[in-house]
Design brief:
By secondary structure, the protein is an alpha+beta fold. It is built from three helices and three strands; from the N terminus they run βααββα.
Length: 70
Amino acid sequence: KMSRLLKTREVADFYRVSTDTVRRWIDRGVLKALNIGTAKHPVYRIYEESLSSVGQYAVSKLPEGVEEII
């Protein structure tokens, strides 16, 4: 089954973050994306199945001990 491809804005709206944050997640390898633009002007499509890694990334950024509360 092919994964659905999502626009940067769709992912940003879903997580209630900016498109810049989504691009940072792509740059850091948190989200798997396809660049359909150029190296100078990237236009990303994010693989839907990679969205689950955002939660794991967010938990890894929490201060020490906070994950016990969640």
